[in-house]
Write a structure and sequence with these properties.
Two copies of one chain form a homodimer. With 317 residues, the first copy, chain A, is an alpha+beta fold. In chain A, strands 1, 2, 3, 4, 5 and 6 form a six-stranded mixed β-sheet that branches. The radius of gyration of chain A is 22 Å and the shape is globular. The N and C termini of chain A lie far apart (47 Å). Chains A and B meet through strand 1, strand 3, helix 1, strand 4 and strand 5 of A and strand 1, strand 3, helix 1, strand 4 and strand 5 of B. Chain B binds a DNA duplex (30 and 30 nucleotides) through helix 8.
DNA sequence: TGGCATATACTCATAGAGAGTATAATTATG
DNA sequence: CATAATTATACTCTCTATGAGTATATGCCA
């Protein structure tokens, strides 16, 4: 790495650049992600020089694939660590990843492309019916062992602390946004197949959760983390909803993304007091129980409230 | 862009990859950014294949340059739009940008590298003494003209709305985080030298604010925006502070970053009730007025509160 | 000694979030 | 047909955080 002032024009060092998409949807109260290769990889491909921009190319591709406009795209992260490169490749690949939100509906999933429940890859992240039964035995206890196995005391303490914070042990609360930290911990401890295949150690029994090729599962974790954070301060859930929906459907979508249950009365109050939706006048008929009003997203809020608000105690005038 | 499932190993399409750093500090109540080429560019250089990771290389480089550990590094964005490429180059360059926080102190700024007040590049972003005098005449009125000059009515409305939101006109409040949107607007309107040089139109008098080479000013705006957002929910200001400081110095640093004044009593209450600092027992002597207590950052908060909190109305148990 | 400048400590009102309860309108079931 | 089950919707109560402003302490300097 140079970063020196002499060379402003980059020397012709050349890297392969790969685009990777985390494409999310919610269907039937379950979070879904678009995959290829029978669920073993995220959609990806080489970055070609004739695209106008990274985003526009991704958008076009997704719209072709799903037959549906891609409501929201944002760049996630650019990965280039050599120690996480695709299996055995000497060459370094730079992966620029994107998060896209859409609806599953008309998914024409050509070939073996298709939507998967993303908790297939991270079963421990779904706590809608409480912490999964296998969590303590299959994951936490083994991570505790890994933490204790560190060389020196300082490292042991550090690992134990990371473990407690990531998984909400001791007094820490569970924080659904820390999905990437949890995955990294499990990876470092050598408990996922990806780490094993990369030769970090002999094969211990991998923990529950489907692996992916290369570092795609890490990229997926990054995307889920971003989405879980974003639903809290930006009205992005609506990109995943059908044109009209009931408040319970909306709540179920949020719960699917967060992997947690929310308090119904307070959730409704939140939605209403922020004026995020408007009544359509119709009611849903095919649901059990009392029929619910159908709402639609008030798209005007996107313009009105360009971004959340301040947390700084500003002065007037 | 392919993203197709057949090609998972990227074809050997090759791009030049460039690293760019937005390195920030606060000195004497002013926000500073590390530059090279007499302030015309951000530190940058080709990405070399032997770095262990992008971040580690950046970190090493900065520590060599400033003689100071780099407290905080995060990836900003990866730029690759062809229409913003370096002047006249046919070749596409991918720029991976990073935000780093440090202290200016022992800046050994070799050669013509050095720290600059970042408001040299964005004078309209400093509102600590109110909106700058030139804002209305040199910027806003010209942007209004640009908005009115659009082809069709829809586009005119859209431009007027973007203008109002970005610059806090009409009823919108000023939002200091929208620095990138403001720069993009000015750029699109052809009012910055960078846009002029790229040949968008004949040279109108550029507005106040120093230009930079290529798209470095855009990258700087991205960095400032990220920092302005982050100080609100993460204790990152402290990376910019000396080991001990008074609460007023801390406040001045926040104000320098945000370009806005904060309410002193409430600011202190915020810091105290979040337990962000601890008393050192000493007081500052060289300041005017009543001597203030010196505090230090309670680094433990980094571990305790890994991340802010929830905005979702969760259910118990 | 009397400003002047800063530090530090309170007060008061209000908005928002957490938690829980009560009632209404359907369909399914015995 | 009555009743249970299920979902919808409307309130209540409490507490904390935030916005805004005021009052008092402690130094230096002319």
């Amino acid at each position: 790495m140079a970063l020196n002032e002499a060379a402003s024009k980059p020397i012709a060092v050349c890297s392969a650049v790969d685009l990777v998409a985390v494409l999310a949807a919610v269907t039937g109260g379950q979070p879904r992600v678009m995959t290829i290769r029978d669920g073993a990889a995220l959609p990806s491909g080489p970055f070609e020089l004739d695209d106008r921009s990274l985003q526009s190319g991704l958008r076009a591709w997704v719209e072709r694939q799903t037959g549906h406009p891609l409501g929201y795209v944002e760049q996630l992260y650019t990965f280039a660590d050599r120690d996480r490169a695709a299996e055995g490749s000497a060459r370094r690949v730079i992966s620029i990843s994107y998060l896209g939100l859409t609806r599953e509906e008309s998914a024409k999933g050509a070939g073996n492309a298709g939507w998967r429940n993303w908790y297939d890859y991270f079963p421990w992240e779904d706590r809608r019916s409480g912490p999964p039964a296998f969590l303590e035995k299959a994951i936490v206890s083994r991570l505790r062992g890994w933490a204790k196995a560190a060389d020196d005391a300082a490292k042991r303490r550090e690992r134990a602390e990371r473990l407690a914070i990531s998984f909400g042990l001791d007094d820490s609360p569970w924080n659904e946004e820390l999905i990437l930290q949890r995955y990294e911990l499990i990876y470092e401890a050598g408990l996922v197949e990806e780490a094993v295949r990369n030769g970090d150690r002999d094969t211990p029994a991998a923990i529950p959760g489907r692996p992916m090729l290369a570092d795609h599962r890490r990229i997926l974790a990054t995307g889920i983390a971003r989405l879980r954070a974003k639903i809290k301060y930006r009205p992005v859930v609506f990109e995943l909803m059908p044109p009209t929906f009931t408040l319970l459907q909306l709540q179920r979508a949020v719960e699917a993304l967060a992997g947690l249950l929310v308090h119904k009365p307070n959730f409704r109050r939140l939605i209403e007091q922020h004026d995020l939706v408007e009544d359509t006048g119709t009611t849903a008929s095919d649901t059990p129980g009392r029929p619910a009003k159908l709402y639609r997203f008030r798209r005007a809020v996107l313009a009105e409230r360009a971004v959340a608000g301040t947390k700084l105690p500003l002065t007037r005038s």
